[in-house]
Specification:
Blueprint: H1 2-20, E1 27-29, H2 46-49, H3 64-76, E2 80-82, H4 84-97, H5 119-135
Parallel strand pairs: 1-2
Length: 155
């Protein structure tokens, strides 16, 4: 709570300065592996091995941090893109495609050894962000390629 309040103050000041300078602003929430991928809750996950406590309930619904961030975005009148549903949908798709393999062996969006995005995860986020920017009024002066025209990574 205390850290989020400090973050809100920092972002509010940044947004205020940007608006005064006629700079468009949007917020993008980047989810943790523990809110999108079941394999990040297994004993082999780097977070669990490092002592991080996880809960499978984090894989469902809107994370509390996102609810707070959405309220903050509404109060600041800036659009918010939550990448959680995008990554959850990708996880569900790849898990369905690899049902014969245990979830820990399916690596689509996060590296299993450090929870950072894989190239596929970066591609997934880039497409979601490009789509968001193309559909919102933020950065309306930019000429953005349609997500389908972005380069596709090899499997």
């Amino acid at each position: 709570q205390r850290h989020f309040a400090a973050l809100q103050r920092l972002h509010a000041a940044t947004i205020e300065r940007a608006k005064k300078a006629s700079i468009d602003v949007a917020l993008i929430y980047i989810p943790s592996c523990v809110t999108t991928a079941p394999r990040c809750h297994g004993d082999e996950s780097i977070g669990v091995r490092l002592g991080m406590r996880t809960s499978p309930k984090w894989l469902q619904g809107t994370p509390p941090i996102v609810r707070a961030l959405a309220k903050f975005a509404r109060d600041q009148q800036v659009p918010l893109l939550d990448l959680t549903p995008t990554f959850r949908a990708a996880e569900a798709e790849i898990s369905k495609a690899h049902e014969a393999k245990p979830p820990q062996s399916v690596a689509l969006d996060f590296f299993p050894h450090d929870m950072h995005w894989t190239p596929k995860g970066n591609d997934l986020a880039a497409r979601a962000i490009a789509s968001f920017l193309g559909q919102s009024d933020v950065f309306s002066g930019l000429s953005l390629p349609a997500p389908a025209s972005l380069a596709t990574l090899p499997d």
